Records
---
Amino acid sequence: MGTKYIGKQSIRFDNPPSIVASAAVGSKKEGDGPLGSWFDYISADSRFGQKSWEKAETTMQQKVFSIACDKAMLSPSQLRYIFAGDLLNQCTASSYSMRDSGIPFLGLYGACSTIAQGLALAAMSIDGGYADKAAVITSSHFCSAERQFRTPLEYGGQRTPTAQWTATAAGCAVLSAVGQGPFITNVTIGTIKDAGISDVNNMGAAMAPAAYETISTHLADFSIKPGDYDLIVTGDLGKVGHDILLDLFSRDGFDLSAICDDCGLLLYSLEEQDVHAGASGCGCAASVLCGYLLAGVRSGRWKKVLISATGALMSPVTSGQGESIPGISHAVTICSSGEGF
Amino acid sequence: MGTKYIGKQSIRFDNPPSIVASAAVGSKKEGDGPLGSWFDYISADSRFGQKSWEKAETTMQQKVFSIACDKAMLSPSQLRYIFAGDLLNQCTASSYSMRDSGIPFLGLYGACSTIAQGLALAAMSIDGGYADKAAVITSSHFCSAERQFRTPLEYGGQRTPTAQWTATAAGCAVLSAVGQGPFITNVTIGTIKDAGISDVNNMGAAMAPAAYETISTHLADFSIKPGDYDLIVTGDLGKVGHDILLDLFSRDGFDLSAICDDCGLLLYSLEEQDVHAGASGCGCAASVLCGYLLAGVRSGRWKKVLISATGALMSPVTSGQGESIPGISHAVTICSSGEGF
């Protein structure tokens, strides 16, 4: 059996798994945003008919999973694994959403990078011969995140200009060993980078160095240039982090401004929707990828897309203890054909 | 490339990865217990020289990782991935312990089943050709867990007879494509089982059905009997959960009492150390496996061991909202030779 690891941190798949279906679910604010039409389901009720925000997030995951399975025309029992994670303490949105599914469950924690981590591991499980089909799900909910990470909603705390708005959204991708694509051809697993930022209202700045490191390593590992991609998307750096990322690359002589975007900038209309520096949350990159971006690959708009989802790995306790915010980013190459790098 | 998935939920590795080194670290209570001599390092100071319990847990992870790398005679930079997780909100013990390591990091959340989940994924990454070497680390700390999940230590809350004592311990295993063993030959990934238990002081009862399901499925998937193992170890059901597990198997006509043990029963002397139903925490199964159990496989005491680590996937928020406790268990076959099932 051949070795599939490349360079410092990367993987090239022998038999690139196919994303046979994907789905995105959101609530009113996500539906009102510029990507609203790319969501499979928008709930006007951000409680999703439940009594708590946490139960709402669980219900949202079940909804996106059900839609993705329907689109893939398979029953959940045909899935060999679910890779899932979210922002809630002990990742309960994921475990409670899947507790009656009967599907082998692998819980992840990568903060807002979870969708990329899940896609990487699910693709490894399929290309490696450990599964024929697997799914990845992640979610976040503005209200469950606000009260857990910041202040009770009722407190009405003022938001700083660098703050990002946690998306009430979930994304699900179903991967298969057989399919017409889009394909996952390459992966770069990120290392943790801590730039010393300790302002939890400036997570874009905390995560940008991780995205820079992962994308740079990815390009070096495969000996490619940014222009070999039609689109490089981070998620979710927001306005502050995105500008830092472009600046870091410009120091290396790369102008990424024309081909680099960010899920945190795409999901909402920043000024009209009053979201300050942009969107964030596990559900941001997941829903933007599983809706808008994968649709663009399927339609032929983009042939090669790099998604480098980013996560801020702090907790309210570590912040309270004066720690800075470690960032991480994992990068996944998504191609309309099985030909990657 | 051949298919390596077997039956409903299991995997047989073509080239079983070798556990080239493992280490266990604990504090005073763990050192005083019956397995004290199997720990590589015992800190009399449960703060591990740090100012907070959370920083202590991070330091404990760094210590166990450093010892395991030394025993494997490799520098951390030779590792392709770290798979790590813990019980703290947002799994910060793991991310902060590895933030300066420069090693590609994959965060997991499987509660106390995390060591088995990590071993399964790390073994897949190596057997699949995505890595030559990878490490798995998990930890728990009595004091950081008590104040997060239950009450402040200063409160001095009375413990119920079914309560378990969260281990202050960490375990680390270093896996390699090349080595003399012990080998990871087979894996069964668990599904989530919710038996309807909502008493957070009775997690053994909540997790026992998951262990039963995973071990039963494992035996069926490989067409083997319990007696094909020298030892089947759950972790960490404690006294209550262990008795339920034996009872569930007795209904199937299997008497597991002679070959089945539990990490939660092994770590402490239940009555002398006043730990009620036994030990728990991610660090319990991890340290018992990475110390005592792997030593027993290396010495030839046991040739084939099944470790089915168990996790309770609730949070204080879900419990507060009246939810029952979902359990999960992943099983990993560890053999002194590369011949598994």
---
Amino acid sequence: MSLFFIIICEDKKIFVSLQSDNWLTNFKKAETMKYLQSVLPIAFLLVFSNCQHRPTLHPCLSLTPEAAQQIAQSHGKYPVFDASFEYARRTADEALAKPIDVPVPKHAAGGYTHEQHKNNYYAMYYAGIMYQVTGEERYAAFVRDMLLEYAHLYPTLGEHPYKGSPVPGQLFWQTLNESVWLLHTAMAYDCVYEYLDADVRTHIENDLLFRVAAFVENGTEANYATFNRMHNHATWANAAVGMTGYATGNRDLVDKALYGSEKDGKSGFLLQLEELFSPEGYFTEGAYYLRYAIWPFMLFAQTIELNEPELHIFERRDGILLKAVNALLQQSYNGEIIRANDALKKTFSTQEIVAAVDIAYWASHDPQLLSIAQQQGSFVLSSAGITTAKAIAAGKAEPFKYQSVLYHDGANGENGGLAIIRSSKASDFMLVFKATSHGLSHGHYDKLTCSLYDNGHEILTDYGAARFLNIESKSGGRYTHENDSYAMQTVAHNTAVVDCKSHFGGDYDTSMKYSPTIIGNLVVNDSKQPYITAIVSATDTTAYLDKHVRMKRTMALIETEETEFPFILDVFRLTAPDCHTYDLPVHYNGHLINSSFPAKKNGTVLYPMTGNYGYQHLWNEGETTLTTGNAWFTILQDDRFYSVITTVEPTAGAKVFLVRSGANDPDNNLRSEPAVIFRQEGKAEHVFASVIIPHGLFDPNLELTKGAQSPVEQIRVIETTDSTTTVELTLQNSKKQIILSDEMMSSGY
Amino acid sequence: MSLFFIIICEDKKIFVSLQSDNWLTNFKKAETMKYLQSVLPIAFLLVFSNCQHRPTLHPCLSLTPEAAQQIAQSHGKYPVFDASFEYARRTADEALAKPIDVPVPKHAAGGYTHEQHKNNYYAMYYAGIMYQVTGEERYAAFVRDMLLEYAHLYPTLGEHPYKGSPVPGQLFWQTLNESVWLLHTAMAYDCVYEYLDADVRTHIENDLLFRVAAFVENGTEANYATFNRMHNHATWANAAVGMTGYATGNRDLVDKALYGSEKDGKSGFLLQLEELFSPEGYFTEGAYYLRYAIWPFMLFAQTIELNEPELHIFERRDGILLKAVNALLQQSYNGEIIRANDALKKTFSTQEIVAAVDIAYWASHDPQLLSIAQQQGSFVLSSAGITTAKAIAAGKAEPFKYQSVLYHDGANGENGGLAIIRSSKASDFMLVFKATSHGLSHGHYDKLTCSLYDNGHEILTDYGAARFLNIESKSGGRYTHENDSYAMQTVAHNTAVVDCKSHFGGDYDTSMKYSPTIIGNLVVNDSKQPYITAIVSATDTTAYLDKHVRMKRTMALIETEETEFPFILDVFRLTAPDCHTYDLPVHYNGHLINSSFPAKKNGTVLYPMTGNYGYQHLWNEGETTLTTGNAWFTILQDDRFYSVITTVEPTAGAKVFLVRSGANDPDNNLRSEPAVIFRQEGKAEHVFASVIIPHGLFDPNLELTKGAQSPVEQIRVIETTDSTTTVELTLQNSKKQIILSDEMMSSGY
């Protein structure tokens, strides 16, 4: 099926191509038709509205004249909003107090010219808002003068002198930052548009804004490719170019932003809404990059809503943008965004999530979002922010509903998924089970990995990224070498490694082709077994295609009357035609205080673990041959103990290693963090059946210690098949058999 | 001068010996006379009141009948007090719901019988309070029944089977815990005294309380020695025995507690007030052990005040107990007690400091204490606690005045001292400079050491103790071997090590003999030099007596218009007749992100540092020969950078080592923590002139980095003598000469 619409209107060409087998690859027919139904009227409306020369009132991107007036009138009424406003005013005033500094680009992230150009766009952005809210012309004059400086500089620039990005910019070392600059600058320009003389406008638009937009869109082959990718960098580029288009009334830029460089809908912002999110709003790059991408997504969406409400941008794909904001918040723990893929520590109080939540509230009036906005403690200075602040002041906030949830990955939801399991009893107990697709360039080789949070801490950890963002002395603030060689590798995660080799041999292209299979659904409070209050399972047969290894991991939340805290039963089953070495690393956050095996640390010399794929970055602090069928260790974190108990087969060769990251790391780019690696040698089939259990109390204020021993003493696999595994847990006063079978995952959640 | 008073009254002998050259060693004549003036009338009063058989109302130790009534009436009025009460009631109710369990002693700290006996004394203590407040007899019956169980068990006990203390107990592995048990049990007994039949009382007193008291006081040679020491264990023992005496009306026990086993005043509680504190209230063992000792000090003092107000216990030595409480609070940072000597992480919300602050308020009505009590969030359930809670509710709280302060050490204030320097501009910037005496058995070999706190974190760290309190799997919860071999050693601190050997060769007896000399005073805002807002200095000539090394360290708080944050100028001057290797370790909390020297980490093999005295516990992660006169490194902690810049003499041989604790630590008893060691070889005289400076901003929410480079670029020693050192600091836009001379410390503070 192919459909073409070509509409010519006042020398603007709107070219809409709808090809179900190409553009809409992987799209189901029904969804295609649904999509067409939504797109067709919009395409016509677009053309219609555009052809009518609808006069544009400025500002029109995120602030509006009405919002500016509301903000001016709200002064003193909403203390937290006032604080955000004061921060903006201070930033603007500080910038106005200094000579304008638009340096010739030189440094990488964290370096002087990089940071100065960042400061400049914030200064212009805040000054623009100040002009709109206070009416003081000095702010507008500042924005104008700085824009003129940039209009003077920009035409003289070539490729940024700091080489380090495959997509180099001109003002910045990478075009990504150029997009962010343009997006903010467009908002600043929008705010002072009416203040500027027509000839100044023409000068700034022709010598600066259109030039930057053209550079971002198509200035280099790499830029063109990026602008038309399905990736967060493209979102930034599209949003920046599109918002420049709306601010300047340049329809060409808007259309490229929405439909791609070729305006054929084969790329561009609207297609990203289809392809970068799963139907439930999961972003394929993971929560950390969703945090970053949600900013241009929501800012541009708000601009579109303000300028072309006919596009119903927030209703597209059943409200995919609002689902994405909710999914991002679900993927947080005590306000901290979970670490998966290339992630650093970030909370949901980052400016991008503040903007996203405010805009989501502005678009949806979902009262749950208000409680998040309250916790964030700041607002975006736009119609979205003031609307949100007013709603909170009106007492409309409701608690955000954190849930146990499974997010399928992939545009059609068929590329695995990520489950979050929360205990309904212990609100701070949260398991993350990741069985997603690779997740583009920031993805890790970590099929079926997990991380565990409890009592305010990450307990089983995901290393995240080896990067020092904006720290120039650390690889210019970019990802360090060790991100590739360690952080991305399988052994840096809590999942199985076969023969000491990463999933897919650490090959990006191969990993991008495959994804795990979620078995049925995440099931919560609906299991056929007692004790199991949530269960999720996934298989992967692709990570070790050449060895024909089948990995299956089932993770269940267990609650019994005998155990004080909920705990995790984790059955990781590995099967293959031949014998292999199966490693299960457990990265923990705490101090190892006890173990079933003699955990003697090497004292006089340390060597790295043997191998590559990240093993070379782990100091072997000690290793022991295991002689019994169970191995456990206990750590202390804060006022609670945690034990991990797992099954091994000593007769086949079982070992345990105490390791610590930091070997082969000459530039000290890795954090020093401990892990235990359980190793099963020489088996074709092995089940690491584990219990991960919080217990006891270590109260330094009362000097009380209780329950330092795990209440689950032993775990034993009674029976295991491809579809069902039965384990027996020995507790202090009872033995419990627990069956985990595929059938249990068949009910919905 | 010798004075003897012997007064015989109803077969009780009160023997007061005052010998200025023996008992009051080191006491100035004037102070002796002052003391005599205060003691003499009290001695007579004591005898008088005692001889009158003043009838005792129970309870009389910390709760009183009036306080119990007030607590009962206050229910629902003071939510935080209510919470403390509910905690106590729940603890008591949980104990009442279980069968009484008084097991035959077996385990060490953290183990079952140890924790059960601890639980038991808390259960009795809380049940006693519940009986007094609610009048419900089941609580009193529970206390009685448990006391009877103990009265049955105790006479059968010998030395505790777990050998591990030089002062073994019977119920517990060490007598210290037996004292704590007795103190709480005495309070419980006091609460149910009136409830018990006379014959039951006699049975419990004779078969339990007097037996435990006798054991603690004189049951073994070690106990006798401990009871009569000047040490926190003696404070516990004295308080426990004394409170048992008051509860039972046994004057013999009271007198032994107050005046020592021989009742001659040559030991005992009253002498401890003279000897364990400096005139300003500094406790010679340091803040962490003051935290522990303050509990029996204040509890017993309150008992004395309630029973013998004529002793004016809280006025003794110019209010030394109240000064000690204030000094303890001054030695905290954001509520955390500073780590010096054998210290673990503790906040001022521990039950012992809660009790101390409440009692101090009860005794002094100092409104500053109320703001601390508010932050503590709990109260002791006694007349002190309810008085404090009422005062807070009445709005009497005033902010606690944190100050820059120098505490002299030693009973007469002549054994060095500890300075705390706080910036008046940046309220969370705090330097601790420790130039005290050894501080008894929990002291470390760390003359002239320092630690630095800023922005909510410990930045230059004191390792504290290598101990896992109450964790049985870690050396039975006691100090681990590595406490001696690493944590106590000089290299584990931020002070100079000569020829890789600890101060005093790590010999306790030698170290106990000497202390550094504070030069003049801590001077705040009164310096002859600009920029210096506080300065303190000390010398030590005893740590390396055999090598005749003179160590002098001067630390100044510097504030300039060019630097955003206050910073430390640290001049550590080492002089000796011969050439030595001078090491200056800098233990830091953060990630090393930049350095002036190539900080390449060893990648393929790690060996410990060469040597003993703690060096064997440090992995040598990398070493470099320094070739310029300055060496600096920068770390990132939270959202701020910190640089340490120091002077070395490369021509004489200068090196830097990156190290990390954890070598030769088979049982994983050490935390893995990094340090940099600056080494100057082959010099008789060397000045490590250093700047320790916070700078910049790393804002992950705004993705902003500012000022990652130290604003102080260089430090140079221009001139140095025994009394004066002049340094030149190179800042971005200026050079500043700063003179640090002994004269400057001559004004008072």
